[in-house]
Amino acid sequence: MRLANALAYGGRPHLQIDPRTKLVILLCVNAICLGAGFSGGDIWVRGAISIIPLLLLVIERRFVLALICGGATTLALVMEMFWLGQMDGFVELTLAGCANLAARFVPGMLTGIYLLSTTTLGEFMAALAKVRLPRAVALPTAVVLRFIPTLALEAAAIQESMRMRGVFWGGGKPGAFFTYRVVPLMICAVNMGDELTAAALTRALGNPGQRISLTRIRLRLPDWILIACCLGILGIWLVL
Amino acid sequence: MPRAWVDEVREGLKGVALAPEKSHRVGRRQVALVTRYRYGVESKKLQTKDLIATGIFTAIYFVTMAVCGQLGALIPILQVLGPLYIPIICGIPFILFLTRVRVFGQIAIMGIVTGLLLILTGQHWAGLVLAVVLAPLGDWIAARGGYKSWWGIVAGYAVFSELLIGMVVPLFFTRQTVLERIGTRHDQAWVQQVADLTPPWMFLVMILMIVVGSAIGAYVGRVLLKKHFERAGIA
Question: Using CB atoms, which residue from A108, A186, A193 is nearest to B53?
């Protein structure tokens, strides 16, 4: 249930950041965390870019999440720094694997959580329209980004109710896993899709022509600072 | 839209508020709109509801793909088998999506959005390039069979799934860099193992694995569709 709750929209954010900036941050964080190595300068670049999502979460007062994930990332990076090349034995290898996974995926995950929990569908649409993405691509993209938290929530609810009925992981049978977890989730998703369509059409999303948005989407000073930081770190990594 | 309808609507529009006052020229969009409302004819153009349905199934497809892909990060051998099992599992949302495909272009958009999401989640840009090329092609193939013929679906899905190959492109085309990077955190034996597991011809094998996986995935999807989704009344 935790992940689903973390992803849900958490009301008006404390610091208004343009969705385009958030996308740039997500892109840079993921490119570096998945692409960089663990040697020499790379590990410092990793550390630097990992701070950005933590900072954003602290600004949004998500202290517990920031503390846990920041701790995990720091631990992973420190382990990677000092254990380099001395890995043998099962325990060490498992620990190194965990550290590797944490260092690679946690910062991107945090940025994703930040992006999804502070942005509304309308803001997404307005921002994507501003980067001149054609409507046929922008609308599905916005729907995907908004729909993932809902999907996580539904999956958690299904898991909950299946556990109440004594069904755990399909009892070891992959077929049963599909029947009890995946099939209900898909049916839920399809039904929600129909509801979402009705809601969107009610809000005149089907109207041809340009849409205007109540939220002002523009790049302010914090946006420029964040973009400069991200691109700077990305540039350093590419040059190194 | 048949010519006769257009003329009929044009006639009907004279004096109606929708028509511009000065000249009685009517735009195509207005004709389509009025036709739809007056005659209950479904427009064959992409509408908002199609785009939303596409978005929703893209979300399911992408999450399925990402979850399956993560298994590869945990268990190394699955990384090599990834091209086989990912299309199998993703076949379920894809086949379900086909029941909602109404006009040409929806599968193409699904592919393009998937490509964008791949870039956003840090995958190689080759994924997006492949998606932009292959998804419309897969869409076109599936459209030949009217999204109903079995072989059209299988061929279309196989072509569509080839965009997954974008994720392993760096391992084969910037091989030295990738192996060096692995070398910084593992000993030489491990690097050798990775290099042995992925000889250059493995790339072709992976492409074939995706085709086979897609065929199996489409079959599994159809079985589940018949067994569960049609019974639940959503297919």
Answer: A193
